[in-house]
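Q: Sequence in, structure out?
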Amino acid sequence: MSQVTTTVTSKGQVTIPASIGDEMRLTEGDRILFIRDADRFYIEKVPGKSESEHVFGRLSRPGVPTLDVEKARVQVRQSRASRHLVDWGKSKGE
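A: Exactly. Output:
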């Protein structure tokens, strides 16, 4: 594991050392993602919008189950349906 040190400016900005930028293949305008994992932070280059398959699932969190999309859809439909139930057994005046 290699280590490189940099300094935080008064504006809270950090310059990424050229050796790290080269290794990450960073170019001007690239976006960086900061990932917190317990006591540590990691940085990762955010791929361009045309590379959505590369970011799918990147924000999963350890110990948190992934979302079952189909199950979520069923729950939303049931929730919506329950708000629109009409009790035909009661009259409006009751």
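The chain has a mean pLDDT of 76.
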